[in-house]
User: What shape does this take?
Amino acid sequence: MIFDAAVLGRTLRVEVREQDGRYSVVIDGQLHDVDCQQTGRDFVSLLLDGRSYEVGLEQRHDGYIVRLSDDSLQVELAEAARGVAGPARKPAAGPARVVAPMPGKVVRVLVVPGQEVPAGQGLVVMEAMKMENELRSPRPGTVQQVVVHEGQAVETGALLAVVS
Assistant: This one.
């Protein structure tokens, strides 16, 4: 998963790769080894490059408030990071397939087949790296299929829903 994160007036390019429960995170070209374990509803324990951190995460509509022991940071995530479709582009023909942008777990299914949805309506919420990502409809239409269920693990590119 590649996205931009704005923090302290800087925008950083972030790439996250998961393998066997550990993460390789490249931030502006620098590789970091990360282990992330949830320790409470809004807290995670991070092992970052061998150093341990206890971090509070407060989800916001545009990203997170990250609470450290001595500071708080607002981190704004680019649209793709939150799993939100970019500017709506209508495919030449056929239904819009909504796929998993990263490996993760489906935590909520927000629609049912036959439901009318506007462009940008949330369809599925996935969790990856202890962050929830809402995947939205790329265009207005009718939900034709919801292929996943809550609690299901999915890989990058897995079909989640179809809107036409």
Remarks:
- The two ends are 26 Å apart (CA to CA).
- The chain has no helices and 16 strands.
